[in-house]
Amino acid sequence: MVCQEEALVEKICDLYEQISSLESLKPSKDVDMLFTQLVHTCIPPSPIDVTKLCKRVQEIRSKLIRLCGEAEGHLESHFSTILASFQNPLQNFNIFPYYSNYLKLGQLEFNILKQHYTHEPKKIAFVGSGPLPLTSIVLASNHLLKTVFYNFDIDPSANSKALALLPCDSDLSKRLFFHTTNIMDVTNALRDFDVVFLAALVGMDKEEKLRVIDHLAKYMSPGALLMLRSAHGARAFLYPVVDPCDLRGFEVLSVFHPTDEVINSVVIARKYPLPTHPSLLDHQQGLGNIILVPNKCSDIETFNPLNIHGNMIEELAFDEQL
């Protein structure tokens, strides 16, 4: 097993060297080939724990996640521009190479949401929606037919491209809104949302991710749900990992680790209904966890919200009272 992990890490590091030497990460034959190899290398289930790797590999992983994020941004921007040239962009999403993954991920996240939310949410915020907001579009089109989606992205060109995809759909154009802003500048408005989705690449390293999560913990409405995307095993070379214990201010309800071509793990958590003054969270790192946190994890058991074999769920147990 050790030899297999060493071979896996060696192959990933070799692909990193090739990717980092590219002149551009915009879609091209070489870019597509290398990232396809990387994804296929990281997808098979692996017991590898990236937190235990040596410092050199940890640094390569951090750089690789940023390269993946940059390449993903270029890919989405490229296809968003192409789709906008169609008379009806929404009917041509199948030209995007990962569209089927988004359909499966949307179904997965909807099934998870249904387990913890008894009725259809009125308002959902999606943080980091990008130029091709497929999650919002898939959920609004296929699953949450009355919900209003507010998409937040820091890049004005991303929102401009996203808006260009909707004019032909009278329903979605009334239920999908786009705001150009840094989510760290959004405060009281976050209390309006029943559910907040946090994109995998918002917060490219642990410190950035924690700052965003702590900000959401301050301002989200008590009882509201937070859905995050994480990564497990070798997939953690592609996306940042969110540890359940990092979700200060939230009760972690469950963590799903798909083992098919859906790459991202899904974490769902509920904002604690206890009144927590924002200033307490500001000093939380210095004072330790002063609000409820998970006290133990049960064994991982086989579970599949998509009725496809091979997904795992971790159910976490909590003390109900302080």
UniProtKB/TrEMBL annotation:
* Lineage top rank: taxon: Eukaryota
Enumerate the UniProt keywords alphabetically: S-adenosyl-L-methionine, Transferase
A Pfam family that this protein carries is NAS
* InterPro entries in the cross-refs: Nicotian_synth, SAM-dependent_MTases_sf
Signal peptide positions on this chain: none
> Which EC main class describes this enzyme?
transferase
Supply the EC number(s).
2.5.1.43
Reactions catalysed according to its record: 3 S-adenosyl-L-methionine = nicotianamine + 3 S-methyl-5'-thioadenosine + 3 H(+)
Looking at the keywords, is S-adenosyl-L-methionine present? Answer: yes
Query: What family name appears in the similarity comment?
Result: Belongs to the nicotianamine synthase (NAS)-like family.
Q: What does this protein do?
A: Synthesizes nicotianamine, a polyamine which serves as a sensor for the physiological iron status within the plant, and/or might be involved in the transport of iron.
Q: What is this protein called?
A: Nicotianamine synthase
Which species is this record about? Ziziphus jujuba
